[in-house]
Amino acid sequence: MKSSQTILTLRGVTRRFGGLVAVNKLSIEVKEASIHGLIGPNGAGKSTAFDLISGLTSADAGEIIFRGEIVTHRAPESRVAAGICRTFQTPKLFDEMSVLDVVATGRHLHNALGLWGSMFSIARKRAEEARTISAAREFLTTVGLGAKADAPVADLSYGERRLVEIARALATEPKLLLLDEVTSGLNPVETASVGELLRELVRLGLTIMLVEHDMKFVMGLCDDITVMNYGSVIAQGSPGEIVQNPDVVAAYLGSPRDGQRSRRSLRADAPACP
Amino acid sequence: MNFSLQLLSGLAVGCIYSLVAVGFSMVYRAMGLVNFAQGDLMMIGAFIGYSIIVNLPGLPFWLVVPLAAAITACLGYAVAQSALWPAMQRGASQTYLVLLTLGIGIILSNGARLVWGANPLVYPIPLTHETLRIWDYPVPAVYPFIALTMVALIAGLNVLFTRTWIGLSLRAAADDAQTASVMGVNHRLASAISFALAAGIGAAAGVLYAPITFVSADMGMIGIKAFAAAVLGSLGSIPGSVIGGFVIGIGETLGGQLVSSEYQDSLAFLLMIGILLIKPTGLMGRKG
Fold it and tell me: Model pTM?
């Protein structure tokens, strides 16, 4: 079923902050309609990698190719238009809005009238606003929060805020969705249902990249995994290959001798970060 | 009797301060800067209104307001795109941005003197001199017009920001530009549109203010009082700016009546200082 076509290629992507090399010659190939995990200890450069892919920070060297186009230095809004959307490690909603309005902001580029058109054509504008809201409602239902549409986002629980952020990202109708620690702060039931949702989305053709600390979640869900440490890639492969990799085990637990136990805790739901 | 008359006049002036203060708050939220040219944009709006009245004598006055607002909004858009955004993009400090907007204000004021002359002008329309009788008191006929337009503008802004897609995007960009950009909102465009809207509202205030005063190049001075109104109501809060405008407008008029109208301006600021001493974050400020 799964196509092996590459949707995103990072080639030698490097980002320095002063003397610190946050991301060092990062090369990744992400296959279309797959889930690609990006894991590694804290400070490994995973979130910076997401910033580079989504355009919030610009690469000092290397190339980012998305669906055959070089997007390395494009502005974030142009990458959204191309089909890349993301969530944040700590959900970043617009705190004075209602849940529905937050999700509706994700429809920004899907408004057929555009910024100027909507100022002038009142009749078409009204139809367009209605379409925006009903689309937002649909995406909210997708993540199971349809009932909370009119609540202020400030009233939501942490887990619900994450789901709203996913709904908002989905509302942009991305081809590639970057999820930064999507399960952190979720209870096991919520985590399981997010896993189900992601599987379903991938079945529909979406490509997902995950930065994740929950090893059970990553190993159970991902088709491919890239492991980073100190900004560089230390391993790439299928979940099965990753758990066997001695470098990965060492990076996570800092004790290469105790390989047996480490492997087990990589598989189990023990927190990966010391 | 005199008291009610003064109250009405305070309300009318309060409407004007409110509208200009709303402009301060909108720009502050969208761009994180205090636009000291806001008062001068209001002045430009009043002059553009004058030119419209002189050149299109048949045009009803209620049409002059949106027309002058639209033209001034275009000017505001150009200012934001050509001067403010490039400065912000290069990481200009607040000190620099304050000087930049003050400078833009001075250029606008001198430019107006160049185009419209140094003598104060009076709108050549009957509304300038007409009076109504309310409860048997003579009241300038423009007062209800000011009140209605002000209410319509604020209601319109409220609909724009809460009910429309473009308003949502503007709010998103003002709240968190980076996150909004990941939703496809262009920060530069959103900032420029917010600035243009604020300029347009300021211009509407200028056209409304003109019939009860003179139109002159230093009319923008009331921008300082409107700024005080915005701070008083918590800079960045639109309801706060409206309330602040009325507090300053009514306070200075009634206070001027009690003490002496020469001290009106000082009273306005005394009021601001007093309120901020009691509530340092402004009337609509959050705790802290």
Answer: 0.88
CA distance B279 to chain A (A): 22
List, for residues A143-190, the tens digit of each pLDDT value.
889 999 999 999 999 989 999 999 999 999 999 999 999 998 888 988
CA B243-B249-B250 angle, 5° bins: 90
**B162 CA: distance to closest CA in chain A (Å):** 9
Q: Which residues in B lie closer than 8 A to residue A168 (C-beta atoms)?
A: 183
**CATH code for A1-83+174-274?**
3.40.50.300
Which value does ipTM take for this structure?
Answer: 0.83
Minimal CA separation from A106 to chain B, in Å: 5
Name the residue facing B183 among A96, A106, A125 (closest C-beta): A106
Looking up tokens 């009331």 gives: B222
Residue A271 has pLDDT above 70, yes or no: no
Q: What is the least distance, in Å, from the CA of A185 to any CA of chain B? A: 20
**Every domain range in chain A assigned CATH 3.40.50.300:** 1-83+174-274
* A23 Cα to chain B: minimum distance (Å): 21
Flag whether pLDDT at A257 surpasses 70: no
Q: Do A172 and B164 touch (CB under 8 A)?
A: no
Are A129 and B193 within 8 A, CB to CB?
no
A75:B181 CB<8 A: yes
CB of A175 less than 8 A from some CB of B: no
> Please, are residues B281 and B42 in contact by the beta-carbon 8 Å criterion?
no
Radius of gyration of chain B (CA): 19
What is the rounded (10 degree) CA torsion for A236, A241, A243, A246?
-80
For residues A90 and A77, give the distance between their C-alpha atoms in angstroms, rounded to a whole number. Answer: 20
List, in order, residues 6 or more apart from A144 with CB less than 8 Å away: A163, A193
Q: Is A75 within 8 Å of B186 when comparing Cβ atoms?
A: yes
φ and ψ of A95, to 5 deg: -70, -15
Gyration radius of chain A's alpha carbons: 19
A contacts of B171 (beta carbons < 8 Å): 94, 96-97
What's the rounded Cα separation, in Å, for the pair B138 and B142? 12
Q: How far is CA B113 from CA A73, B40, B119, B192, in A?
A: 45, 12, 8, 26
| A265 alpha-carbon distance from chain centroid | 24
Residue B114 CA: distances (Å) to CA of A234, B39, B118: 68, 18, 8
**Hey, is A59 helix, strand or coil?**
coil
A107 touches chain B (CB under 8 A): yes
How far from B138 is each of A25, B8, B109, B211, CA to CA, in Å? 79, 11, 34, 16
Chain A partners of B183 at a C-beta cutoff of 8 Å? 80, 85, 105-106, 108-109, 168, 172
pLDDT > 70: percent of chain B: 99
Distance CA B178, CA B260 (A): 51
Which residue type, as a one-letter code, is found at position A182?
A: V
